[in-house]
Amino acid sequence: MRKVDGMEEAKGTFWKATLSLALFSCVINLLMLSGPLFMLQIYDRVLSSGSVPTLVALTILICALFAFMALIDAVRARVFSRIGERMEEVLQAPTFLAVVRRTWRSPDKAGAQPLRDLDTVRSYLSSAGPAAFFDVPWVPVYIAAIYIFHPVMGTFALAAAIVLVILAVLTELLTSKRQMSAATASEDAHRFAEEVRRQSEIVTVLGMSGALNDSWLVQKAKAMGLHSATSNRATMLSSLSKSLRLLFQSGILAVGAWLAIKQLITPGAMVAGSIIMSRALAPIDQLIGQWRMMIGARRSWARLKALLNADKQAGNSPMALPKPVGRLSVSGLACLAPGKQKPLVSRVQFSLEPGAGLGIIGPSGSGKTTLTKALLGIWPHTQGDVRLDGAKFDQWDRDTLGRHIGYLPQDAALLPGTLAQNISRFDPDATPDKIIAAAQLAGVHELSLSFENGYDTQLGIDGVQLSAGQRQRVALARAVYGDPALIILDEPNSNLDSIGDAALHNAILTLRKNGTTVIVVAHRPSAVNAVDQLLFMADGTQVEFGPKEEVLKKVTRVATPQPQPQPQPQPQSAAQNISKFSVGPVRVS
Where are the transmembrane segments (predicted)? Predict the structure, then answer.
């Protein structure tokens, strides 16, 4: 599939429309002169001559011109709206994928903020704000038209325009940084509230609601304080701009009246000059009034650009490779968690042939889950590499590689959708046979049929709420869907009962029989009964690796009922600590 540069296409969409927008703005601004010229003719010709036919002809003409101007203005507004819609169409898919990819590369980054940024940019482009930029270049034209009436009026109009431009610059200098700070504080408060909402169960059970509410109110108060200060300053400048514009309109009328008294201009020129100056200053005043919206859109665009450029550099699609058979090799692997400086896993080295089963065991905090994230390419390697069929993971397109990998994390989260969609990984080409095969392999076929709507049962907030064990079994079906070459299961039986344990055991044996390489992180011995090799982790390093029976002899002991004297505490190495952990009749911990 061809990789589309969404940012370049979006900018191309805007620049292609620039010529037509400039043409529409030219016509609209020329037609804006119709009103002043009409007033000039009424005062200087119709009133002096008393010609009713001339009045009727001018009225018909001005009505036609204003109707045409309304049509052109509506077309221009529709073009701006279509630009916003088109840019959203072009950028929404790349932005969504970039958010997903950035989240698993750097989980501490902002979540869906780029999607909100896209809405902000579209809303601004569809508003009247951008039209002011196409009208501002006509300010000198209007001022030149006033100069034609009289240089004094032209000079007054120029001075008024300069004052409003200075106000626009002051608005940028005095509000830009403050508004960015306010937006950042508001986003932090929003992310905090969203995280508390996600963990509402534990928050409520542990009585943390009040304390977290106080913490959120502090963050919200900070954001509101910054927003209030910025809003007050921007509102003051906007009100000052509007008042000055009205004052200048009256001022030029007074100047024109003085010139008319001196018989240097006609009364029609006085009125026409006032109307033209009002039109000349309107785009500047409009820019000042919409400055906050423009700053927000500009900030959102900058974030989108940075996100998509970073994603483009990190995600160039490599050449397609053949379907892997599941040969996995790990050499000298060291891994960092995002934002950490010290490796959490180091000196890991092993290889697996297709159909092999590897159990990863060790105490809590020994690096088992970190190792699985490193094997899957979720967390970055600082040393060594992981190869599937001889190729590093970055030599694969992630979507293509993902179809050949099964993964069951500790948190078996499901997505809003039907049971069939969750099992099939939302594959649009999924067939009932493939979905049912995965469900049967994971032992959830009967569970699926027990629901009223079967595989069409909706899951998620508004759907059926599954238990932890049911979610884990459905997530196992999702992991085995599509006959992947490599499957990694992180504590797959932590929430399973005996029936689920038996289904898991049979699934691992069947997968291995079909040539799938299976890696299981285990705390309970039943999870490693179906594997043939073990890797023992301690303190983030690989201590033992080899055939299951050999590793078990080295790292386990059978508890005996005879009391043993308590030895004095002595410093122990990771290798000496392995005797504390048991497999088989005693729990692996």
Answer: 21-43, 55-75, 132-150, 156-174, 243-261
Reduced to 3 states (helix: H, G, I; strand: E, B; else coil), residue 88 is helix
156 shares its domain with 241: yes
Query: Residue 310's closest CA among 122, 97, 9?
Result: 97
Domain that includes residue 36, residue range: 6-313
Q: Which of 114, 110, 80, 120 is nearest to 97 (CA)?
A: 114
User: What is the rounded distance in angstroms from the CA atom of residue 444 to the CA atom of residue 472?
Assistant: 10
3 state DSSP class of 415: coil
Beta bridge mates, 370: none
CATH code at position 377: 3.40.50.300
In which residue are the tokens 């003085």 written? 258
Check the CA dihedral 23-25-30-35 and report its sign: positive
In a domain, 566, yes or no: no
Domain count, the chain: 2
Going 39 to 41 to 44 to 48, the CA torsion angle's sign is: negative
Residue bearing tokens 């509007």: 242
- Does residue 519 register a pLDDT over 90? yes
Q: Which of 580, 543, 104 is nearest to 345 (CA)?
A: 543
Tokens read off for 153: 């009026």
Question: Are 13 and 86 within 8 A, CB to CB?
Answer: yes
First to last CA, the chain: 46
**Same domain, residue pair 102 and 128:** yes
Question: CB-based burial of residue 467 (10 Å sphere; 0-12 exposed, 13-18 middle, 19+ buried)?
Answer: exposed
CA distance 131 to 76: 8
* 353 plus 241 within the same structural domain: no
How far apart (Å, rounded) are the C-alpha atoms in residues 106 and 114?
15
Q: Tokens 């011995």 map to which residue?
A: 525
Please indicate, yes or no, if residue 499 is contained in any of the structural domains.
yes
Q: Indicate whether 436 and 471 sit together in one domain.
A: yes
Of the listed ranges 141-155, 186-200, 464-478, 561-575, the one predicted with least confidence: 561-575
Indicate whether 99 and 131 sit together in one domain.
Answer: yes
pLDDT digits (tens, 9 = 90+) for 352-380: 999 999 999 888 888 888 888 888 877 77
Judge whether 318 lies within some domain. no
